[in-house]
Hints:
Elements: H1 3-21, E1 31-35, E2 41-44, E3 60-63, E4 68-70, H2 79-88, E5 94-98, H3 101-108, H4 118-123, E6 130-131, H5 140-150, E7 155-158, E8 162-167, H6 170-192, H7 203-215
Parallel strand pairs: 6-7
Antiparallel strand pairs: 1-2, 1-5, 2-3, 3-4, 5-8, 7-8
Helix pairs in contact: 1-6, 2-5, 3-6
Bound molecules: zinc ion (ZN).
Amino acid sequence: MNPNELELRQELITAAQYCESHDLLIYTQGNFSTRVAGTDRVLITPSDIPYPTMVPEDIVEVDIEGNKISGKYEASSETPIHLTAMRRYPHVGACAHIESPYLNALSSVNKSVPNILGNFVYLFGGMGLALGPSIRSANQDFADNTIDAMGEKFGVIWKNHGLFCVGQNIKIAFKRCIAAEQAARVYYLSLALGQGEPDLIPDDVQAEMVETAKKWGLTKAV
Ligand SMILES: [Zn+2]
């Protein structure tokens, strides 16, 4: 295994372990993938394997059509969604899916996450999250409907399930997951104060943030 690919595999594991340690998924939930640059190969976390003891060799290698190339385990059951996103959008280099409690709580009562935090505005280019299909995942129809719903955005909520985010690389896809759940948590807490809807970031400030995000390379328009 070449050093670059080893590093990519470790990045997937690190992202998953971070998410588990911060209650963004439990046990074997969630899934993380990345393209191997310059190839049609994709590395993805295995199905139903715990993250704390996961090693780079446990990551599964598939081609962009979903055919398994190597790995002792089965690829994540959500592999069709990851690959559909990558096939449709050349700028998508990596995908991450988490089972985010605050996002799930809000979407279960039909509330979306507003632009309440700067980090959320930066990482999602001010566009927020799309609302995708709710059930059942792990099949191609669900994958197509998810990516249709996501459109030009960078994240999509599966109601009663979790969040799926894309990025140029796994670091950005993963950071988007964290930023979205953090915004959801703050929104939830602000509502819990019982003072009505919270103030959001003013539109003109959001517009400046979006321009800054473009300069930072956080949006594909750059
Ligand atoms: Zn899931």
